[in-house]
Amino acid sequence: MRAAPIPNPTLSLSCCCCRFASPKCVPSAIPNPRFRFGASSAPLRSVSVSTPVASASSSAAEEPSSPITATSRRRLILLRHAESVWGGRFTRDHDRPLSEVGRSNAISISQKLEQMGWIPELILSSDATRTKETLEILRENIKGLNQAKVHFIPSFYSIAAMDGQTAEHLQKAICEFSTDEILTVMCMGHNKGWEEAASMLSGDTVELKTCNAALLEASGRSWIEAFSAAGLGGWKLHGILKP
Questions:
Q1: Is residue 158 within a helix (H) or strand (E), and if so which, with residue range?
Q2: Closest by CA position to 243, among listed 65, 108, 96, 91
Q3: Which residues does the annotation place in the binding site for substrate?
Q4: Binding site: residue ranges?
Q5: What is the mean pLDDT of residues 38-64?
Q6: Residues 10, 193, 91, CA angle at the centre, nearest 5°?
Q7: Phi/psi of residue 151, each to 5°?
Q8: What does the record list as coiled-coil region(s) (predicted)?
Q9: φ, ψ of residue 154 in degrees (nearest 5)
């Protein structure tokens, strides 16, 4: 499927965090890209809660003899937060916590990710309460997940409401915060943006209900190369993981 241009947002909503300055992500760094970045400006703002990234992840362990300079499988998990409660009159949408069903579903999705071996080494998450609580449950239930580096990115909350913007924004965030040694990345956020991004990257129609995860894969010596080679519609959709 050929890349389709990303439409302009229909929601009048802007965020200073939507552009990047990292030299890893500028268009000139991408050989013959099919999916190009826009002009870069200020680096994306995040709150980092991190521990050192494990030198040998479950993903890297699958290919112990393959150097990072060789083409590697790169796995992307797009996880929508678990179910949250409807806030009261004075509760902001951003601050809504998980419901009991949401907590149970987060435990279930944790177990399934671990069983499949899709353990992220880098986690990029919205800073909304419901995504933070979902991540907390995942870290309590997935062995080794506490070794993953975590960044809470405020713009993940707002970008998900903008038509056609999330896929490119996630690509930029991944290129900004990842390294070539990281082979599995998880991005946690909201609809409509998350299922829209999964659909655009895979070329399939993807529906993500709460606590559903789209499992995507592409190949490249770096994340920039993987995004460039796969483009829009070229990521392999392994499936939708559900609680």
A1: helix 155-159
A2: 108
A3: 130
A4: 130
A5: 45
A6: 90
A7: -130, 125
A8: none
A9: -55, -35
